[in-house]
Every structure is written in structure tokens, then in C-alpha cells.
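A favour, since you know our C-alpha cells better than I do. Just paste the record in under my message, thanks.
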Amino acid sequence: MPTRLNLLQTQQPRPWLPDAAQRGDGLRAEPKRVQVRVKTQATAPVALRAPVAADAERFVTLAERSQALHTPWTSAPSTPESFAAYLAQLDTPANQGFLVCRPPKAGEGEQIAGVFNLSQIVMGNFRSAYLGYYVFAGYERQGLMRAGMQQLLRHAFGPLKLHRLEANIQPGNAASIALVRACGFRQEGFSPRYLKINGRWRDHERWAFVAH
């Protein structure tokens, strides 16, 4: 693993689409949103679960604390309003979001370490989605996002039955590239000026995990 894990990424040009079933191109998302809790082994260092409204205060605090870590790679919802908008985006069958949580220990509550997002989930003959993720400050360089990624892949290529998962990563984000490489993604290409982040069009590398 790299010496410094920013583990941020990836945003897409259209990170949240309307229900893919409305697109008229024959590609359909699942018929309804499913609240997902990814099955986790008892010994796993993290668990994945869907975010809920009750997470707002903790999430916003973590996002504010992590702004220096996240810049220039991504930005997390850092106000109650933007968190509510994030939850609303998950209320479509084309999107799923997961919090990377350290299970409660004696004398401690659950800790939110990071986030994974699946967006533009399209089924039919395509069965593909985009992957975005970031870690919160204080939880980097601990292997938590790698453990979470392994669970996410089991979900994406198991119950969700995807064929392909794509992550677009800025070339300078070495830690994020190290994460996807370690988890079995392969680089497929390079997209100049792919996505506008913080007012600038930024180049991205295209990485993908394809079902065997």
C-alpha cells in the first residue's frame, strides 16, 4: 500500500442520472431502490451500510474536517443541505451509496471512515456502473478503504450482478490509483480534461474491474 492514502475519487461528468428505465435506450436499471447492507464477515475491520438522515451531523463534521485531504481530488457533502441532497440522489435505482464503518467496540460507537458510491447503474445487456469513493481524515493509511473495497466488489459482482465497474482517477492521485490496482482494477485509458473539479477541467485515468 502507498505511504499516504488519500483514497479519494471518483466523480463522473453526470454522477447521478434519472432512473435509467426512463432513458428509452433499452438499458434498464433495477425496478426499485433497495436499502443495502453488505454482508460482512465477523472478523472484517469494516462494514458497509447505506447512509441515513441520522448520519447527517457526523457526516458533515467529518467532511468539513477532511477538506484539506480531499482537495483537489473530490469534495464530500459538508453542509446539512448538501448531505440531504446526497441522500435524495440515492433515492433512484441507478445509484447506491455506502458508508465504510468501523464496527462498535467496547466503550466506543460506530465510526464512519469513508464512503463508496455506485452511480449510473445500468442493467440489461450492459450491467455497468461508475465507482466513486473517499476516506475521511484520521482514517487514511489504515487499510480500511481496501477492506471496504473488497466488500463492495463482492456486492457489485454478486447480488447486484454487474459485469463492469469503472473508476476515473486523476493521474496525480497516486493513493487512489494504488487502491484500485491492489483490488484488481486495470487501467483502460486516459481522458484529457474529463471532469470539471473546483473550477478546472482535469485529466483522468480510466480504470475498470470486469467480471471474469
Notes: The two ends are 24 Å apart (CA to CA). Residues 62 and 180 are 23 Å apart (CA to CA).
